[in-house]
Amino acid sequence: MILRSLSLSNFKNIARAELRFSPNINCFVGDNGMGKSNLLDAIHYLSFGKSFATLTDNELLRHGEDFAIMHAEYRRRDADETLSVGMQRGRRKSFKRGGKEYRRLSEHLGLFPSVMISPADYALVAGAPDERRRFIDMVLAQHDAAYYEALVRYNKALEQRNKLLRDEIANPTLYAAVEAQMVHAADIITDTRRRRIAALSEIFNRYYAAIAASSESVTLNYKSYAAADDHTPLAQLLDDARRRDTVLHYTSVGPHRDDLEMTLDEMPMRATASQGQAKTFTIALRLAQYEFLKQATGLKPLLLLDDIFDKLDASRVERIIKLVGSPDTFGQIFITDTNRKHLDEIMPTNGDDFKMWRVANGVFEPFV
Fold first, then answer.
1. What band does 216 get if pLDDT is binned at 50, 70 and 90?
2. N or C: which end of the chain has fewer CB within 10 A?
């Protein structure tokens, strides 16, 4: 899949941009805060219907403006495709493929896959479990409609149960009806997570070894509310926890409490890893996500690399450059940096088929 062109109006600090891309590598050079990452976020938005930075649509509008427009042209599965998004302050956005608006945005997930690697990924290591669950759900929802539908059903039922708890409702029949919906959806969620994360972990270990080139031992394990040595059904767990949950005013068991356990040499990654090790871990995880999605969808996702070389030693940078510079493994790449040093090192491995822009205050000027 190739993103051929992108037109932006009033997106974050970008007043206006008209860009045509190389099908190979596209580089954006400039100081921090100039708009490089905002461009990548626009590409991410077109894939997911939301900002990588988890901003609301109103927060994506350029300061002082009431609307924003995005229009993109793709080459996908040997056919030309267009996506367009219109956002207006206080109104529902319009998201169209080929000029036809989606009835539900869920219909779009996975059709135009992309993977973003960003400094914000550090939260996957150091942040709360909900950061890692969000990562799991994003990866799986892009290629598994049944998983996404189960996740929507589960979250809806979970909110209903939490409302009963907050309102201190004591009717067991109401709880039983809501919990039955949760249990059915949870079976699909946990089974899919367990199988898919096991496959993702194998790919991840290979990428981490390639980047670190050391004897460091890393693991990525799915930690479910339903532990391997505990076969208690969720229905029973919910029933047993109901009195405690009534005091807490929220549901304390279920797949919404699951986590990814990340370790380095058998110790928690968040407690022992250096910044360089943590960054290596998250880059390997995202590259594994890329390969996983490529295998699952039959498409090469767009690879968005946002300032990934900071806090890495020269040898790890060299190995990452060698990895992402392979056109046989990766497809179209969009990469940002504050200077040209790393970008100039990538270019010789990719011939003349690349483009580079200088970015300042939301303006993109091609290097000649």
1. confident
2. C
Could you give the angle at the alpha carbon of 324 between the alpha carbons of 323 and 326, nearest 5°?
Answer: 75
Q: How far apart are CA 339 and CA 100, in angstroms?
A: 40
Query: Which run of H or of E encompasses 115?
Result: strand 114-117
pTM: 0.89
321 pLDDT higher than 90: no
| Contact yes or no for 305/324 (Cβ under 8 A) | yes
Please state whether 132 falls in left (phi above 0), alpha (psi between -120 and 50) or beta.
alpha
**Res 243 pLDDT > 80:** yes
Residue pair 116/333 in contact (Cβ under 8 Å)? The answer is: no
CB proximity list for 363: less than 8 A, separation 6 or greater: 17, 35
Number of helical H runs and strand E runs in the chain: 11, 15
Alpha carbon distance 184, 238 (integer Å): 13
Confidence of residue 53 (pLDDT cuts 50, 70, 90): confident
Which tokens belong to 75?
Answer: 């080459």
Write out the two tokens for 327.
């056109």
Q: Kind of pairing, strands 114-117 and 302-306? A: parallel
Q: Note the pLDDT tens digit of each residue in 259-280.
A: 999 988 888 888 887 888 888 8
pLDDT at residue 351 greater than cutoff 70? no
262: phi then psi, degrees, rounded to nearest 5: -115, 120
**Average of per-residue pLDDT across 276-305:** 91
Residues forming beta bridges with residue 234, ordered by sequence position: none
Q: How many other CB atoms are there within 10 angstroms of residue 167's CB atom? A: 9
How many C-beta neighbours within 10 Å does residue 5 have?
A: 13
User: Rounded distance, CA 43 to CA 61, Å?
Assistant: 15
